[in-house]
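pasting input
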Amino acid sequence: MLSIGEFSRATALTVKTLRHYHERKLLVPTAVDPSSGYRYYDEAAIERARVIKALRELEFSLDEIAEILRECDDDADALEFLARRRKAIAERLAHLRSIASALDTVIRTETEAKTMHDQEFAIEDKTIAPALVAGIRTRGRFDQSRDAFKRLGRAFGFGLAGPAGILIYDDEYKDQDADFEPYFPIKRAKKTDPDIHVRELSGGRALCLVHRGPYDTISKTYGRLLSEIRAQKLAPLLPSREVYIKGPGMLFAGNPAKYLTEVQIFVGPTDA
Amino acid sequence: MLSIGEFSRATALTVKTLRHYHERKLLVPTAVDPSSGYRYYDEAAIERARVIKALRELEFSLDEIAEILRECDDDADALEFLARRRKAIAERLAHLRSIASALDTVIRTETEAKTMHDQEFAIEDKTIAPALVAGIRTRGRFDQSRDAFKRLGRAFGFGLAGPAGILIYDDEYKDQDADFEPYFPIKRAKKTDPDIHVRELSGGRALCLVHRGPYDTISKTYGRLLSEIRAQKLAPLLPSREVYIKGPGMLFAGNPAKYLTEVQIFVGPTDA
DNA sequence: GCTTGACCCTCCCCTTGGGGGAGGCCTCAA
DNA sequence: TTGAGGCCTCCCCCAAGGGGAGGGTCAAGC
């Protein structure tokens, strides 16, 4: 018979844990000295302790372990418990993966934005690649886009492939009753809400300029792009895009003076 | 100003939670009526509550959230915290995956063993496919294989591809000083312990018979296989294999009378 | 036989993120 | 003014033990 200290060394369970298991009636000592209260354990207790440890490593709760020990003599008897545990772990894994994905997205966007922080921006003539996106066409004021982004975030579990943006379908700036579409680039198509429009956004040639500062001064940036387009004798196409390099974050609104928004106006040859 | 109940509805945080956050100084009400103790919250508190909720969804602890709120005004400021959290989640994911893998292995083996539970077994002439295995060559008594399996389990995190077995290098039964190799079929090779020998085990033709019952009666099964091999004028090759379809489980030792072990003796043409 | 040091006992408080409920005060509308 | 619902503080509860106080026990050495 082993004293609790010896048994603790034999099983690699702490004395505290053993006393706790005794109290929970999970692992009762083989004998308890009635006068001193000293606990003594035998070989069978070592085997039971081994099973309990194995089940703890599978992260069963002590209650579940007690139930398994009551009902099972063989691994095959425990199949239901094991399958249930397996399912719970699969759910936990899925949840953690969605958190990881959200973290990755915000880490990536903020890191990229950081490198552009102190840059000077000029008009660039770019070829934009096609991209799979999910968007919600909206009519009204631009501050409604927050809700749209929230809905997209929930629907796609933050499984984003890049910075979010807005498609602008109006050919002049509108404050009220604007026609626009907040969108997320996504990795895989997925059916969700009927309001959410998932499709491949076509690419093409666009003149782009990064706007620094709050959104209410963005018309200046549009103005510069449109004069350049006229100067190059090109025609602006709709919808134009605003890509949020750095805007209100997932957590904090941040400082609007530091917001960075790339305005992309797609262009084609003039009709003339 | 909102009362705590109104604020609770506005933020989807329970009243209990809000009082708890107040106590933890995480989200202090904008005003507290000194005579009644009633809490009142303003718009800024709603924004702060939104941030706290977002951080809770990323499963930050309240202490971490308090720290983030103290130090950050922008998502970019929180990058270190986010990266740390991301790392912790990656570790947790890896751990859960190893548990899931262990559960899968035991569920698969026990389920397969169940289907063979009531079967009658006869000698079968099989072609065994090659398999990637990790084994520990051992000299001594067969009950030492428990430790070997434990070591293999730890080294490969239960990432098993099928039932474990033992290779037998002796051409006669030895109780003491036997020469054998407990092995696990594995999915991917991996360098570990120098004692652990990882390689592709070659396949081939083998006569196989499932032995039912404890290991100490397994020599009868060997006898039946060897007489059949002699009758067919074949030569037995070494090492032979014992594949544990159902034996002492990951949790319970179970009932030895129900153990199932497939003995596989590889054969070639006789020299004569 | 006695001492000493290691070992063991019980009891209580602590951790996380709140939930449940008791007992009592406050507010607002009828 | 009264009643209902809202709000307050205080206390206990969950899981799985950890930390420590205060005190009894055991075995070995003298």
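fyi The mean pLDDT of chain B is 94.
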